[in-house]
Specification:
nine-stranded mixed sheet; alpha+beta; 9 helices; binds coenzyme A; globular; about 25% strand; Aminopeptidase
Length: about 210
């Protein structure tokens, strides 16, 4: 999706940036992990296929992807962006007849960054982006039945379980975006700043604007 190609979102602990070609090698390394493949229900790809996937995530109008960066490392301009990467987050418009339905996916790929509140912060930021920029009115998430942490996180975020598919061994959770949800999202992302990603190359400058 082109809508976020120049968008940088700054949170308390994380920075979200568009998924670029420079991110692909690290992303490809992550996805060699059988644990991540299982937790995210992903198939391993060759590096070539991963580049194709990045192009499709960038160009297709039904996919919105951000790479998650650790803000602490990112704030040091001497650290390359690729080294700040800790995961990714997506909204997929899975129903061409209903573009207000957004399927969320999130991965904190680096295990040492899990359990620190980053997953929750990223999900809130992405949901706020989805509501404000993509006009999403219902969020959906499909999670493997074994993925207790992810199920716990989305339940904590007040997603409701709507179905369990024993064949695919996954549970579907949803959240309708009503006025109450909009207000909560606005409140818990009030610290979030949106910037031009192209300026983030001179990160010191961007940070001093805060
Ligand atoms: C699932 C995932 C996104 C959660 O992100 P995270 O940064 O680790 O989670 P947070 O620290 O923000 O915690 C959010 C909530 O998740 C739950 N949680 C986090 N760690 C947990 C653990 N070890 N055990 C049980 N619940 C846990 C809690 O409900 C927590 O809320 P609380 O701290 O207010 O109690 C992350 O662990 C991850 O990406 N795992 C690997 C890939 C994956 O499973 N992706 C999801 C595919 S659907």
């Amino acid at each position: 999706m082109k809508i976020n190609e120049n968008t940088l979102l700054e949170g308390h602990q994380v920075i979200l940036v568009p998924y670029n070609i420079e991110h692909v090698p690290r992303y490809h390394e992550w996805m060699k992990s059988t644990e991540l493949q299982q937790l995210t229900a992903s198939e391993p790809l060759t590096l070539e296929q991963e580049y194709d996937m990045q192009r499709s995530w960038r160009d297709d109008s039904d996919k919105c992807t951000f790479i998650i960066l650790d803000k602490r490392q990112w704030a040091d301009p001497s650290v390359e962006e690729e080294r700040c990467m800790i995961g990714d987050v997506n909204i997929f418009l899975t129903n061409p007849l209903d573009l207000s339905l957004g399927e969320l996916e999130i991965m904190i790929a680096e295990p040492t960054f899990r359990g620190k509140g980053m997953g929750k912060e990223v999900t809130h930021m992405m949901m706020q982006f989805g509501v404000a920029k993509l006009n999403i009115q219902k969020f959906q998430v499909k999670i493997g039945l074994d993925n207790e942490v992810s199920i716990a996180m989305f339940k904590k975020l007040e997603f409701q379980e709507v179905s369990v598919c024993q064949v695919f061994k996954e549970v579907t959770l949803e959240m309708m975006v009503d006025e109450c949800v909009r207000t909560k999202l606005l409140n818990c992302t009030s610290h979030m700043k949106e910037r031009d990603y192209r300026l983030s190359r001179s990160r010191g400058t961007v940070m001093s604007q805060t």
